[in-house]
Amino acid sequence: MSAASVAQVRRRIEDGIAILEIDHPPVNAISQPVRAALQIGLQEAQADPAVRAIVIHGAGRIFVAGADLHEMELPPREPLLNDVLRQLEACSKPVIAALHGAVLGGGLELALASHYRCATADVSIGFPEIKLGLLPGSGGTQRLPRLLGAEVALEMMLGGAPIEVERAEKLGLVDRVLTQPDALSGALLFARERRARATTAAVRPLGRSHCAGSGPVRYTARPQRQGIRRTARAQGPRDWTPAPLLRDLAECDSSFAAWDRQRPGAHNLN
What we know:
- The protein has ten helices and 13 strands.
- It is an alpha/beta fold.
- It folds into two domains: 3-196, 2-enoyl-CoA Hydratase, Chain A, domain 1 (Alpha-Beta Complex), CATH 3.90.226; 200-268, no CATH class.
- A six-stranded mixed β-sheet has the order 1-2-3-4-6-9, sandwiched between helices.
- Strand 11 (209-210) and strand 12 (217-218) form a beta hairpin.
């Protein structure tokens, strides 16, 4: 890995929590060196038995404000953002995105692939790509509707306007609104609290749910199920035949029950 990659993503471990801090001013764009360093950092954290959780944070006033626009005129260079996000999402250790400032475009893609999202009160979250004639290109068109339902996801992707933290929390896009002004310290506290509760979780790509309070935390098919139900409610009064949607809902319910019974790949924050 190049020296530039090392400089743009700082890596350290605090109390069993690996911190990956993106430092690529002025807006922490996810350039190729950043993607490469994130990938290496995730691999190292995954392989280190002393690491129980991972926090991704953006240095400065912004989490990540999108892709590096300078790279749009160049041939794609590996690792692609899609590859990094799939690796992050499949990580057997909980990954927490510490959100603050602007969380836009590729930054929201990164947050959606994380298992948890903690946000400060000043956060602004959105997919503004439509203003450039683009749509999210690294899985956001799939992850966002699975989490929030089709209606809200289409509003965010086709409207391009960011949403504030209060609405993000209400929709379930943010797991905790932080009282701390520093997103990193708040996210670290979030991880430590769950470790103190001896929480276990089974990781499943594109499926994440948690119970409020001190109950167990499990990664399941529930976000897909909730998103499909929201879509069905939004579309219900219209004159249409929802058979494919209802079939998908039944499949999610079946998957949810199966994962509750089997709970493979449990990981522990102890």
